[in-house]
Each structure stands twice: as C-alpha cells, then as structure tokens.
Design brief:
CATH class of the largest domain: Alpha Beta
Number of domains: 2
Number of helices: 11
CATH architecture of the largest domain: 3-Layer(aba) Sandwich
Strand order of the largest sheet: 7-6-5-8-9
Order of helices and strands: HEHEHEHEHEHEEHEHHEHH
Distance between the termini: 9 Å
Number of strands: 9
Bound molecules: phosphoric acid mono(formamide)ester
Structural class: alpha/beta
CATH topology of the largest domain: Rossmann fold
Radius of gyration: 19 Å
Helix content: 25-40%
Oligomer: single chain
Strand content: 5-15%
Length: 302
C-alpha cells in the first residue's frame, strides 16, 4: 500500500519518533562534505507548487537529490495549468511519467488529499490553504527535540495569526501527540473560537505568553489569506504581539524563538531577535532538509 503524508492527525508518536530518529542521520549527511547518497536511486520525486515557496520547495528538491532520486520541478506558472488543466489531470500526467512521489502545495484546503485519492503514487502535502503544513510541523518537532533532548513536558507558545495558520494547526496536533503543552496568544481576531478544543490553552497577556515557555513560536502575518482590518497596523502588532530579546528574557532559561518563515522583520520578530542566538529560524531551515530526507525515505522505503 502506498504511503501519503497529508496532515498530522493520525500520525502516531512512534512514527514521528522514527522520522526524527532517521532525520538525525540525514542531518549528518547534510552537514557532511559529501551529500550524494543512493538510498532513493531509481525513484522520481515531482514538486507541484501552486503557491509560492522558498524553504519547502527547495528543501524537498535538495532532499530528493541528496538521496539519489530524480527530481521533476513542475513550474505551475509555465505549465499547462495555465491552459486550464485540472489538478487531477496534472497529477495523472506527472504520474504517467513514472513519478513515485508528488509534493504538492495548493491554496485550496484538501487539494493534496483529493490528489492522493486519485493517483497511485504517493502524495506529500507541502501546505494546503488554512488546513495543514505537516512537514513544517515535523521539522519544528525535530528542532525542539534536538535542542532540548525531548518534547514531552515542554511548554510551546504559538504567538500570532493562529486562526489563519496551517503551520499552527499542524504544530498543535504533533506537539500534543508528543506530550508538549501548547499555548496560543495573539490579537483576539486571530485566535480561533474555541481554541481550547484544539488542545491548547489561550494566554491572556503577552507577559503570560512568555512566562513559563521553553519555545516561543512566531507566525507570519498572512496577508494573502486574511481579510484586512484584523489588527490596526504593523507597528501596533509589533508593540503588542512582537517577539524581541527583552520579551524572551521572561521565558524559561534557554528558551528558543522559532518561526516558519518568511519573517516580516520588525513585525512578528524584531530585527534584533533575528540576529540573537536564541532565534532558531535558520536552524529550522537546515532541519527542514534533514526531516524531508527522512520523510522521503519513509515514504519510499518499502
Ligand atoms: N515555512 C514555509 O513553508 O516557507 P516557504 O513558504 O518558503 O516554503
């Protein structure tokens, strides 16, 4: 049976642990002078991104190449999508070329699942609408475990536009699966109604959000997804919800600041924080490559 990776719901702690364990070895390959392996020799990975991306797309393409797979990059802007070809027909066309895995990003929630239900090859969700970004959550989990040696028992506070964030949604699921306590904080217009039902606590002040946290996770203001008017201005946002080195001092000793990227500097994270050693955004990028290598191996190994 083929393996897909579409969302974090239903992914067990054992599977997450196995992927993270494998990513440890993959990171060694990434950091070594010799990144060419033949673990996936003979396999083909296609990337099909209907939305912009730097980190996710490049890391999947590099991950496949480092493990010896062939990579097909479907540039949606110059592909037959522009002639009106549907997701289904595009997916089946890519599959008919002998592709083993399609990595898809789409603005419509559910598009990767629809594709997975209609093709025989494996499908990985690289972010769909407001729904899920499971590989971001996997790399975040790995980054936290690498730093603290565990995930269980830690407090992770997600600050920002939780309501419009597929990153937050996937992280809440995977972090709680691994036994972390998850809290959220942000403008009330950006916190989902009944956030507690997602398994997280809602903080009531910026000080409370930082106090007791091992990890502060900032989120990008997603102008492409939200209606305007959910916060007064970028300046106000930075003042009331921004992460900076002074606020990080309220968090637990050794706490780290994470961000999926791209960062709006001076808004979610201050310029100073981006250069501070507690800021792990670049470590996350390297770990994204290692975890996506582990994921491709897991998807294709049998
Ligand atoms: N974190 C993330 O998904 O970044 P990209 O949009 O650059 O892939």
């Amino acid at each position: 049976m083929k393996r897909d990776f579409l969302c974090m719901q239903g992914v067990s702690a054992d599977t997450l642990t196995k992927l993270m364990d494998d990513a440890v070895g993959m990171k060694k390959i990434v950091l070594s002078g010799d990144k060419s392996r033949d673990i996936l020799k003979g396999k083909t990975v296609a990337t099909l991104f209907y939305e912009n991306s730097t980190r996710t797309r490049c890391s999947f393409e590099d991950a496949a190449k480092y493990l010896g797979a062939t990579v097909t990059v479907v540039d949606v802007s110059t592909s037959s999508v522009q002639k009106g070809e549907s997701i289904l027909d595009t997916g089946r066309t890519i599959e008919a070329m002998g592709t083993d895995v399609i990595v898809i990003r789409h603005s419509a929630s559910g598009a990767p699942k629809y594709l997975a239900d209609n093709v025989k090859c494996s499908v990985i969700n690289a972010g769909d609408g407001l729904h899920a970004h499971p590989t971001q959550a996997l790399l975040d989990l790995f980054t936290i475990r690498e730093k603290f040696g565990r995930v269980e028992g830690l407090t992770v506070t997600i600050i920002g536009d939780v309501k419009h964030s597929r990153v937050a949604r996937s992280n809440i699921v995977s972090l709680t699966t691994m036994g972390a306590k998850v809290r959220v904080y942000g403008p009330p217009t950006m916190i989902p109604v009944a956030a507690e039902r997602l398994g997280c606590e809602v903080c009531t002040s910026i000080e409370d959000a930082f106090r007791g946290s091992d990890v502060i996770m900032g989120l990008r203001i997603q102008l492409e997804r939200q209606q305007k008017g959910l916060f007064p201005s970028y300046g106000e946002y930075a003042r009331f919800f921004g992460v900076n080195p002074e606020r990080m001092k309220l968090a637990n000793k050794g706490a780290i600041a994470m961000h999926p990227g791209p960062v709006n500097r001076g808004v979610e994270f201050s310029y100073a924080l981006c250069e501070d050693e507690c800021c792990y955004k670049d470590v996350q990028v390297t770990n994204g490559l290692a975890t996506r290598m582990a994921l491709l191996k897991w998807i294709l190994e049998d």
